[in-house]
Amino acid sequence: VSVFAERQPIAVKSLDLTAGFEELFEDDTPLEANGWQIANDAQYRILAGVLTFSDTVFAVSKGPELHDLEFAVNFRIAETSSTAGDFGLSLAQAGNEIFRIAVDREAMTLAVSGETRRGFPLPENVELAQYHQLRIIKRGAQSLLFRRSMSRRVFDCEQRGPPCCVEPRAES
Length: 172
Prior knowledge:
The protein is mainly β. The protein is built from no helices and 17 strands. It has one domain (2-170). The strands form three sheets. Strands 2, 3, 5, 6, 8, 13, 16 and 17 form an eight-stranded antiparallel sheet that branches. It has a seven-stranded antiparallel sheet with strand order 4-7-1-9-10-11-12, with no helix packed on it. Strand 10 and strand 11 (109-113) form a beta hairpin. The two termini are 25 Å apart. Mean pLDDT is 73; it is low at 142-154 and 158-172.
């Protein structure tokens, strides 16, 4: 599992992974000390309970491959002057990305990709400078379920890996 940003500085409030794991950034302990892997030695900082990074491409990942998992991230954009780039969550199997959910700033869509890529318009009044939550729930061979408000859409992840469940929601 990984959190990523491409051409878009973001701030992350917390990371939550199954098996009782939660990363709250309560001190300045390096992410690597807690088992996270930082792609390309990208620069980041932890300050006042928030992980921030602004490199052109940033990815932080953790863990063994799990058959079932739940992964949630509370994040917001850290810079509002640009509308380029995207950020979100991805799942990998044997080092290959099998599923991604991303907020595409330029298109103002939630892009979901597995075997195919689909984009869904973000709500007109969404404020990306406020914290929002993206969540992936992977349960064996179940299909992917995307929820926004009361709508539901079903997707299949790449055939190599079990499908996933995704639920983005605003933090109250």
